[in-house]
Amino acid sequence: MQDGAPPRFSCFVTDVSNERFHDAWIGRGGPLPWPPRGPDLSPLDFFLWGGYIKNIVYADKIRNTQHLQDRITSAIETLTRDMIQKTWQEIEFRLDVSRATNGAHIETY
After folding, report:
1. Is 26 strand, coil or helix?
2. Measuring CA to CA, how many Å separate 60 from each of 10, 45, 52, 54, 72?
């Protein structure tokens, strides 16, 4: 990726994808558009992995792949039922807002 160009969005890649997957691949500029994805609809990614889990996993320098796997497993084991329930409630709320606004941009605070 150079100068802010998005990955997997060159003429070569789209041509190869079209040849190999017969115009049935999902992606930016592809025959099937990539579904919208952002913090509005992805609290699992943005809270659990992007925030909570990632902070625990990378609190110490990772030495090797096994160490990384162990850190991820340990971080996941710290999740409580309450944290997961609140995350799902947030997903349901954001989906309700998205449906009510016909998928328009949602300001989150």
Report:
1. strand
2. 37, 21, 14, 11, 12
